[in-house]
Amino acid sequence: MGLGSGHRVCSQPWVLGGSRGSRGRPWGRGLVPGVASRRVPPAALLKNNGRKEKSPSARPLLEIYSASGLLLAGIPWKSGRLVQLGWTASEDLLCIQEDGTVLIYNLFCEFKRHFSMGNEVLQNHVLEAKVFHTEYGTGVAILTGAHRFSLTANVDDLKLRRMPEVPGLQKPPCCWAVLSRDRATVVLLAVGQDLYLLDTTSCSVVTPPGMSPTAGAYLRMAVSFNYRCLALFTDTGYLWMGLSTLKEKLCEFNSSIRSPPKQMVWCMRPRSRQRAVVVAWERQLMVAGNSTECIQFVLDEDSYLVPELDGVRILSRTSHEFLHEIPEASQEIFKIASMAPGALLLEAQKEYEKESQKADEYLREIKDQKLLPEAVSQCIEAAGYEHEPETQKSLLRAASFGKCFIDKFPPESFVRMCQDLRVLNAVRDYQIGIPLTFTQYKRLTIEVLLDRLVLRRLYPLAIRICEYLRLSEIQGVSRILAHWACYKVQQKDKSDEEVAHAINQKLGDTPGISYSEIAARAYDCGRTELAIKLLEYEPRSGEQVPLLLKMKRSKLALSKAIESGDTDLVYTVVLHLKNELNRGTFFMTLQNQPVALSLYRQFCKHQERETLKDLYNQDDNHQELGNFHVHSSYSEKRIEGRVGALQNALDAYYKAKNEFAAKATEDQIKLLRLQRHLQEDFNKPYVDLSLHDTVSNLILDGHHKRAEQLYREFKIPDKRYWWLKISALATRGDWEEMEKFSKSKKSPIGYLPFVEISVKHHNRYEAKKYAPRVTPEQRVKAFILVGDLDQAADAAIEHKNENEMNFVLSKCTASTDAAVVEKLNRARAQLLKK
């Protein structure tokens, strides 16, 4: 065991390594206990927090450092007394005050927002606070002065929960922790030798299985990174380790150290069977796990432990170290006298570089055991877990050397590891200060790592990584450039024109870039003119218009919407203008935009009829005003109201000099009045019928004189009236009246319609009366309709028309119409001779 990053361990699977003597600014004293961490965020410190001087120079300083100790930002703390600091999963800093207010800052100490943990917390103040992380987000748990717990599981979706009261609790608990189990967040607390579990509705006493009866009172508890394991430390130095469900004990250890630990955290790797708890006192570190023995380290200075996915970070004034389990691949290769295939391959490569024949001996030994593919894979895997680039190179050279002796070894894992390590080494640089482990990097994903670089405004490095990994523009470079542009608009030292030009020069038409999002950021920063200039580069009108409306540039938004040709977009702007402007100004604005005015009229036709009338009146559009009154007349239930609306339409049509529309409206008024009288006289609905249906219904009801009256008053054309009347008479079955009508005067439609209508109503007897009266040109058709083929044949022969003869023949059957067929054939033969 050792403290240097290059020190190897043979007998134990745990190593403490890191950097000592940071090249950045020393962190100094004043670290606030409980700085929560997820995946190596920066370190937040509050200095001078204990001073009581009132002078401005004595104010506490909130400072944020990179993981390598470089100062990122700092501000004098002017708010209330701080109880706890913590990081969210998205690397925002949570500053929890004594009054329950939580202030949120970004990495550069720029204030973002705040929220309160509720009135009860405000009244009783915060004794202790913890920041925790679950699958739902970052949460905050509070212990108040009234010894009650309140928490929220997600600071981005604030839902405050007050936990049940612990019976008889008169003083703060000895220790407590937040657990996440079965999609619920609960609190576990210790009071003396008793453990209490608080869920949403109840408080229950719990007992860890296998706990020694002489364990004593609880001093510390720790929950593992994944919430699956729990550790309890008592005042007798007894350490219990088990599942957080409190249903199974994993192991126990007696340290014989009775003084309360300063911190206690879990140290474990995902999917590893090795579990360990790290207990820290002032200058001593103890690692206890499955073994009956423990490992102890002496610390040179006060340190702070930060549990992570695959280890524990140890931060002090001058160093940043990482305690972790040595992965199996690394153990196999680097343990003393190892004969693992990876170890032999590494030695073979080293001997090969020395041009020693031992290289062949090592290689042959691996090949004889048929373990060369395993050796290559082992070296590739171990390279990922190494922090020092030289060790990484040595292992990768060994893997590359071994690959040469394997047929068809898939190169993907080797290439991917080279890429991953190049990215990791770049971000681990002390000037960048993101010392991710390989396990953390894989869990984090490259997309989130790029987000972390963007948050630190390390845009060039993020772009180089995207280009190196050949990420798609939308996923990589475009997204980063968009973030850069959003940061650029916040710079107040340059003019709007310069900033807009610089952004456009850099971004151009890069796919995936939304100028509207950048413009929105500029507007949020109070730079409206810059936002408008940036929107000029936005090719999508649908993205321009909403922001212009938000900026109260409605007229410009209307012009952009019309240019787009998107009617829905125009409607959106028009309706926004309608709500924003007074009626007169709104109408005047539309007058200058014919397209918008036309669309608004269409809208009013379906939604706001009265507004439509106002528009027509303002435009002196008498034609459309007349149409409006005609349309409105049909919504009137009373005849007088309908006639009044039509009268208004008539006046408008006269003003529009539309004589046809005026005459039609006048006739409609006359018809309505006649229909009202008919309805009153015959007690039958006539109103709303057309002229045709009115006359037809009168004939059907036998009111022939009234039908004649309408025929004359409305000057119905003769042909139309005759068709209408014979159809109605046939429907009524009034054949006598129909025959009488046919003889009243010469039919303007001829007599074939009489035949057709009679046949249609299945009355061939009546049809035969009219067939002889049909004109010679239509007589063949008439006789066929009534079924008189003999007469049809005579008419065709008399006409000397071969087509008519053929038509009659097509209707004949040989068995029943032989005489007609013979007659037609003779006539056809004579016709052909001529």
TrEMBL record:
Member of which family?
Belongs to the VPS16 family.
Q: Which domain of life is it from?
A: Eukaryota
Q: Name one GO biological process term.
A: vacuole fusion, non-autophagic
Occurrences of domain Vps16 C-terminal (ranges)? 513-830
MF terms in GO: actin binding
Which compartments does it reside in?
Late endosome membrane; Lysosome membrane
Q: Which PANTHER family does its entry note?
A: VACUOLAR PROTEIN SORTING VPS16, VACUOLAR PROTEIN SORTING-ASSOCIATED PROTEIN 16 HOMOLOG
Q: Give a single Pfam family match.
A: Vps16_N
Where in the numbering of this chain does the Vps16 N-terminal domain appear?
42-416
Question: What UniProt keywords apply to this chain's record, in alphabetical order?
Answer: Coiled coil, Endosome, Lysosome, Membrane, Protein transport, Transport
State the protein's purpose: Plays a role in vesicle-mediated protein trafficking to lysosomal compartments including the endocytic membrane transport and autophagic pathways. Believed to act as a core component of the putative HOPS and CORVET endosomal tethering complexes.
User: What Gene Ontology cellular-component terms does the record carry?
Assistant: CORVET complex; HOPS complex; late endosome membrane; lysosomal membrane
Oligomer status and interactors? Core component of at least two putative endosomal tethering complexes, the homotypic fusion and vacuole protein sorting (HOPS) complex and the class C core vacuole/endosome tethering (CORVET) complex. Their common core is composed of the class C Vps proteins VPS11, VPS16, VPS18 and VPS33A, which in HOPS further associates with VPS39 and VPS41 and in CORVET with VPS8 and TGFBRAP1. Interacts with RAB5C. Interacts with STX17, MON1B. Associates with adapter protein complex 3 (AP-3) and clathrin:AP-3 complexes.
Q: Which named protein is this?
A: Vacuolar protein sorting-associated protein 16 homolog
Q: Which positions are tagged coiled coil?
A: 345-372
* Membrane topology label: Peripheral membrane protein
